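Translate sequence into structure tokens.
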Amino acid sequence: MAVPVPAAREPVHPLVAPVAVAAAGTAAAVLLHLRDPHDSGTYGFCPFLALTGQPCPGCGGLRAVNDLTRGDLVGALSSNALAVVLVAVLAVAWVLWVVRRSTGRRDRMIVLGKGSGAAVLGVLAVFTVVRMTPWGSWLAP
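Result follows.
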């Protein structure tokens, strides 16, 4: 009795993942453009803010992306400057990922090592604390 040989799988095109990420990001941006998060409760409430009365690092992020989709950079920065920086970093990382994938490399968009992961967490912690202080109140949403 012959054992059936599994059919060879077609390799997935290297740009499938970047295109999927771009589609998801675009869909999220369109949603945030069409359904304004500036209206209180539109997307629910931040549990950290509800429990502590203080904004978390993400507070104002949806409003910032909404402002970016409308071309209002100043409004976006006043909603959440860290979110604006994150959007820019992700856009650059995505472009570099597409370039790498186009040259045949099968890697992920972003890979954080222990050191860079700790640095990101440190930035989030510092941002959170600074926006709670009087001299960093300009960062508060």
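Note: The chain has a mean pLDDT of 90.
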